[in-house]
Specification:
Layout: H1 5-13, E1 22-25, H2 31-41, E2 46-49, H3 57-63, E3 66-70, H4 83-89, E4 93-97, H5 103-109, E5 115-118, H6 123-135, H7 146-156, H8 158-176
Parallel strand pairs: 1-2, 3-4, 4-5
Helix pairs in contact: 1-6, 4-7, 7-8
């Protein structure tokens, strides 16, 4: 569903840029296949780490300057990546590959500067967008995407989501009467 091979294609394009490192964390079903592809490409800039405890997730999101959220074409309608909320809340820069009409595509595209939307499987667009995003990174610190952070607090926080749910329930109750 994710098309993680796209990350390895981007890593290949940045193989000679020592300042750019790609980190893939997790133990998903395709990890071994991705490791074989990375080894065959001899990618000096790609590291694999095992799945980390949930409580470490906020720290991991702050660790990266740019976060890739790949989704294959046609899949993003069924799946919304939960890690996106943590990426945005940490002030990270997100690049998502998703169909524009998917929920993921709409959040990124209409989120007023919270990230970048790239056509799925478009290697050249992903690499170009990654170059743009890397040029916007503040080398002096983290939390460089205040728009993303504000969007997460306003739209993806527990209080916000529960408040909208409560309002929807009240609306449904009023309609039932």
């Amino acid at each position: 569903k994710q098309g993680l091979e796209t990350i390895l294609e981007a890593a290949d394009a940045f193989r000679h840029d020592k300042a750019v490192q790609f980190v893939i964390i997790g133990d998903g079903a395709h990890k071994k296949r991705l490791q074989v592809i990375a080894a065959n490409l001899e990618l000096p800039n790609t590291r694999f780490f095992p799945l980390q405890p949930y409580e470490r997730l906020p720290d991991l999101m702050r660790f990266g300057d740019v976060h890739l959220v790949p989704q294959k074409r046609g899949v993003a309608q069924a799946v919304f990546p939960s890690k996106l909320a943590t990426i945005l809340a940490s002030g990270g820069i997100a690049i998502a590959t998703a169909d524009p009409e998917s929920e993921l595509g709409q959040v990124i595209d209409h989120g007023a500067g919270i990230g970048y939307l790239v056509e799925p499987s478009n290697r050249e667009e992903l690499i170009g967008t990654l170059r743009v995003a890397l040029n916007k990174v503040d080398p002096g610190g983290r939390g460089h995407n205040e728009r993303a952070r504000a969007y997460a607090e306003t739209n993806l926080g527990r209080r916000s989501i529960l408040g909208r749910l409560e309002q929807q329930i009240r609306t449904l109750e009023a309609e039932r009467r």
